[in-house]
Amino acid sequence: MNRIYLDHAATSPMHPEVVELFSNRLAEVYGNPSSIHGTGREARKILDEARSILAKSIGADDPEIIFTSGGTESDNLAIFGTALKKEGKHIITSQIEHHAVLHACQKLERDGYEVTYLPVDSDGLVKADDVKKALRDDTILVTVMLGNNEVGSVQPIAEIGALLEGTETVFHTDAVQAYGVLPIDVDELKVDLLSVSAHKLNGPKGVGFLYQRKGTNLAQLSYGGEQERKRRAGTENVPAISAFAKAVSISMESREEKTAEYEQYKEIFKKTLNDAGVVYKENGKQQLPHILNLSIEGIEIESFLVNLDLSGISASSGSACTAGSIDPSHVLVAMYGEEAEEIRNSIRFSFGLGLTLEQVLKAAEKTAQISKRLALK
């Protein structure tokens, strides 16, 4: 069975050119970039070149990039690094953040901090005015994601950034899902910290970066060597970082083309369901182009996903199945409430590298068939 992968928001396949470069770097670049001999200097040169590419991709300066192991570490460094450095005990975030942010904030609550979890409307959007109302004299950090990983809603980050400009409050955004899909300029967004991960845009897993605006202080969380300007100890993963930069270069060159392609996929998918008489609604507005989250009337998500999987289609929901119990998507709960039908019948399709129009059409047809069959039961 030739599977159709529609879960690119969870992780993405590596681009063939990235795989080739990564393999070559693994074989050929083994020096420690902190070493002063020629082998180490070769690794340092590759590291510096990658840092420059990544900094340029968001309008930053090279020293403002801290290499990490991915989005979770970047989020944790931003949140805990700020909390340990600044005086004050109040943090503002949203109810729909990734768990790398939410669980970090909950840990700080257990340590005596106060966290305001901003609501979202039924479109999955935070209101900048709610941020303004929640601000206090002791607010040290606002952390709101750029693009939601479940429903794709793009948050008003630039508006929030303008609101916070000139204050002592640090502004962080988790851009893991949006990076490589949306154009990002840290000065336009007015963010102090920004998290990114390679595996969401056809790079390797286990590598990412945190943008740290010059003058924004962070406490060190890992101790050892003096790598990353003493901000993150540990020998840098040069092959993965180099492959990350390659993936970003490819993404930047093809972003507009891919955006148009993904929007076409969405329209084909929805038209196919409409033509088949499937009753559904789209969750979220102002979405990332590669995410399509649908609430399909009459289905239960567990059996729906199983049937899709048996048909060779990989998709996902925001729910986690553990030993027969369901933890509903916290994003959909925040949008619709705990009793809403949407938390039991919503599925996320997400598009990316390797998909064709024919595959998307086939997946949509299978989705329609399964939806109608399950709705009859």
Automatic annotation (TrEMBL):
Q: Keywords in UniProt for this one?
A: Iron, Iron-sulfur, Metal-binding, Pyridoxal phosphate, Transferase
Q: Does the keyword section mention Lipoprotein?
A: no
Q: Name one Pfam family in it.
A: Aminotran_5
Catalytic reaction list: (sulfur carrier)-H + L-cysteine = (sulfur carrier)-SH + L-alanine
Instruction: Please list every transmembrane segment annotated in the UniProt record, as residue ranges.
Output: none
Cofactor(s), names only, from the UniProt record: pyridoxal 5'-phosphate
Locate the coiled-coil region(s) and give their ranges. none
- The EC code for this enzyme is 2.8.1.7
The protein here is known as: cysteine desulfurase
Look up and give the organism this protein is from: Planococcus halotolerans
